[in-house]
Amino acid sequence: MTEDPFRHHPALRGKIVPADQSTYRTRDFSDLDERLKQNGLPQIMRRSDENREASRRATLAGREGQDMWVFAYGSLMWEPAFHFSEVRRAHLDGYHRRFCLRSEYGRGTPGCPGLMAGLDKGGSCDGLVFRIPAEIAEEESHFVWRREMLFFSYVPEFLPVGTRQGPVEALSFVVNPDNPLLLPPMSLEETARIIARAEGHLGPNIDYVEKLADAFELLGIEDPELFALRAKARAYKSAP
Predict the structure, then answer these.
(1) pTM of the complete model
(2) Is 10-184 in CATH node 3.90.79.10?
(3) Cα(87)–Cα(132) distance, integer angstroms
(4) Where is this region: Disordered (predicted)?
(5) Catalytic residue chosen out of the listed positions 86, 104, 140, 148
(6) What is the spatial distance between Cα 185 and Cα 225, in angstroms, rounded to a whole number?
(7) Residues 81-102: pLDDT tens digits?
(8) Cys-Cys with 82: which of 59, 70, 140, 161 at CB 3.0–4.6 Å?
(9) What is the pLDDT of residues 60-81, one digit of tens each?
(10) Distance of CA 185 to CAs 75, 97, 99, 189, Å?
C-alpha cells in the first residue's frame, strides 16, 4: 500500500496544490518571454533551456537512482509543482529567509517592484522538505528546475536539513550573489512598505507573505519576524 505523503503533518492535506494542477509544469516560455518584453524587461533575464539543463545535470551528478529531498522556504511550501511521497517540517542552519529579491514581474513591475524570498547566509530557516522517490526523481527534477531555476536568482545546493524524523540532505535554492536583482538588507518597515504596494503577474506581493505566514501557523512554527512583517504590510495596505 502506498504511504500517505501527509502522514507526518495531516493538517497539510488539501493545503498544497497537487502537482498536476500546477501551471508551473505547463508554463509556456514563449508566452513568458512576450510578457517580459511587454513589461520592458530583457529576455536575457531568463535562463536558456540549455543553461537550465546544464545546471540540473551538474547539480544532480552522482545522485542517480536516489530519493531527492527538496527544501521549501517560500512558495514551494504551498505549490511545489512536483510529485512527492513525503513531506516533513524542516530546519536549516546556516541560512536565513530574507525578502531580498527584487520582483519586477511575478510580484511587482519595473515601476513598482515587489520582493521575493531567498536563502541568504547566516542564521537559520524553518520550512518543509519534500521527498521525491528515486523512481521518479529524474523526471520530476526537470519540473523543479522549471519552477526555481527559470531565472538567475538562485544557486542550487544540497544542504544538511534537520527534521523530527531524522536529518536529510536536501536540494536548497540559495540566493545568487551575482544576481543584479539581489538587494542589500533593509529595515522591516521598508520591506513591509514595498510588499504592501507591489503587485505583479502572480498577484499582490502581500499575498505571498500571507500564504507563508498561514503555512507557519498551520505547522505551529513561531516566526516573530515574519508575523511582524505581515502585520506591518497589512497596516500599510489598509492605510489611506
Answers:
(1) 0.93
(2) no
(3) 9
(4) 40-59
(5) 148
(6) 14
(7) 999 999 999 999 999 999 999 9
(8) 140
(9) 999 999 999 999 999 999 999 9
(10) 21, 12, 9, 12
